[in-house]
């Protein structure tokens, strides 16, 4: 990419929706690095995982939220946004795709539930180098100052590098000021997850309904995990793959002729 | 599990919805192997990936669709169904979880988009050995005769075995009669996917909308993949993992000190 004379095309999406402070911060963080195009959901899509819209049609509308920067909002999921951007807006693959900055953590097992990461993964499947960014602050008015510096540094590096085709990173940024961040750590995904506990309530008609809640538990005590890095004020970088084959179990089933 | 005197508890869910022929076939296929409990979505959830319901409450209702077998329908996604089953219905982990039988293929990259597989993965994350089953026939009235035989054989084997904690399989069954199936092959996930092509239409008010369509393309020519197995009339079994860390890229980023 460094050899190209024209500016790289940077596709930006998210899962919190196009009006969130996180996506605006991401646009601001990289607008000097290339031609930014925004395609993002018109409603919050957190926890949508790798959902796609099959059973209903999608809407798409150009918006002027980002001034000079071309932007579209869609009725689809984050994954739909990437697909629509490539097929109907850019009519080509962007040079890189960035997703986020998510309001809230997407470390450990949450990579699987995250709409932010699913959009990034969709791009990587298409052969577009991609990063999903998340800040460990759930508030609508979170402070993205430190996150923007991290994003700019990482994306600059990414645009210089000779990246592999399916380059995909899950980046989480601790809450706090730029001075509080100790550095960037390449990590593995921790085996840490929410222990579910549904809250049961009665509606005004006396019928039960349930809210998903849960307590976060880390079962992985290693110092090489994203959870450890974040607890120690490092930015966590987990390289992510989409070949979900469990080769160890595959070898075991073959060796024991399990299903013969 | 073989040592237990009581019958194993088999949790069954799907993504096509609780009224589909596929889930009924799955229940029928294993009802002699344990105590079956069904918890499944009340509406189709295909392509929901690993979506969970965070922003709205969930409903759950006991139904009598399966005669003697306890069954609940929920307003949630397949993943929500597994979470609700463990926390609110069984109040314990089932011995195994089965998802499907999906009306249509979930091989190759489709494991990532599949609600069927996400339910199975959710169970595996919880430490419940799990299999997602899919039949290569999208029709509502698909013939599950061969699939039911395969399911019964595989689940019998699964209940005898000393399975590892996060045992998770993606099983696809070719269309056709039992005699046409050549056997069971343990495979890796093929790098094969849909090349998207959105169909653009105008609504009665003259506004554009889009339907996701696409052509399936296999970029993986190996004979060790699920796509190859299915094309050659084998049942494909892909062991699946939920640690998405790309260890190869991790080592490379560490070696080159990419972000230093």
Summary tags:
6 helices, 9-stranded mixed β-sheet, Stationary-phase Survival Protein Sure Homolog, Chain: A, 260 residues, globular, alpha/beta, homodimer
Textual characterization of the structure:
The structure is a homodimer of 260-residue chains. Chain A has 260 residues and is of the alpha/beta class. Chain A contains six helices and 13 strands. Chain A has a single domain, classed as Survival protein SurE-like phosphatase/nucleotidase (Stationary-phase Survival Protein Sure Homolog, Chain: A), CATH 3.40.1210. Chain A has helices at 21-30, 78-90, 115-125, 145-160, 226-231, 247-255; strands at residues 9-13, 35-41, 60-63, 70-74, 96-103, 130-135, 168-173, 183-186, 192-196, 199-202, 208-211, 214-218, 234-239. In chain A, strands 3-4-2-1-5-6-7-13-8 form a nine-stranded mixed sheet. Chain A has a two-stranded antiparallel sheet with strand order 9-12. In chain A, strands 10-11 form a two-stranded antiparallel sheet. The longest helix of chain A has 16 residues, at 145-160. The termini of chain A are far apart. The model of chain A has no long low-confidence stretch (mean pLDDT 92).
CATH architecture of chain A: 3-Layer(aba) Sandwich
Question: What coarse outline of chain A follows from CA principal-axis ratios?
Answer: globular
Strand order of the biggest β-sheet of chain A = 3-4-2-1-5-6-7-13-8
CATH class type of chain A: Alpha Beta
| Number of helical segments with 4 or more residues of chain A | 6
CA distance, first residue to last residue of chain A: 50 Å
CATH superfamily of chain A: Survival protein SurE-like phosphatase/nucleotidase
Largest binding interface between chains: A-B, 75 and 75 residues
**What percentage of the residues of chain A does DSSP assign to strands (E)?**
25-35%
Task: Return residue spans of chain A where pLDDT drops below 50 for at least 5 consecutive residues.
Answer: none
Structural class of chain A: alpha/beta
What's the oligomerization state? homodimer
Radius of gyration of chain A: 19 Å
CATH-defined fold name of chain A: Stationary-phase Survival Protein Sure Homolog, Chain: A
């Amino acid at each position: 990419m460094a050899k190209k004379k024209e500016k790289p095309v940077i596709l930006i999406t998210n899962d919190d929706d196009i009006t969130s402070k996180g996506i605006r911060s991401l646009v601001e963080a990289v607008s000097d690095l290339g031609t930014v195009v925004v395609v993002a959901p018109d409603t919050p899509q957190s926890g949508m995982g790798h959902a796609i819209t099959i059973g209903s049609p999608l809407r798409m509308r150009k918006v002027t939220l980002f001034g000079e920067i071309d932007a579209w909002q869609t009725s689809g999921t984050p994954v739909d946004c990437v697909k629509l951007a490539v097929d109907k807006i850019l009519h080509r693959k962007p040079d890189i795709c960035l997703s986020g900055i998510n309001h809230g953590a997407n470390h450990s097992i949450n990579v699987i539930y995250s709409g932010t990461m699913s959009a990034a993964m969709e791009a990587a499947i298409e052969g577009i180098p991609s990063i999903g960014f998340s800040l460990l602050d759930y508030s609508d008015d979170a402070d993205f100052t430190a996150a923007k510096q991290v994003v700019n540094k990482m994306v600059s590096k990414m645009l210089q590098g000779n990246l592999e085709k399916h380059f995909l990173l899950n980046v989480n940024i601790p809450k706090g000021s730029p001075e509080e961040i100790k550095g960037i750590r390449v990590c593995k995904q921790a085996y840490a997850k929410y222990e579910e506990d549904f809250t049961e309530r009665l509606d005004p008609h006396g019928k039960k309904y349930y809210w998903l809640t849960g307590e976060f538990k880390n079962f992985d005590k290693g110092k090489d995990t994203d959870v450890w890095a974040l607890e120690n004020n490092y930015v966590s970088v987990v390289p992510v793959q989409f070949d979900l084959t469990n080769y160890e179990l595959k070898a075991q089933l073959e060796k024991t002729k399990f299903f013969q």
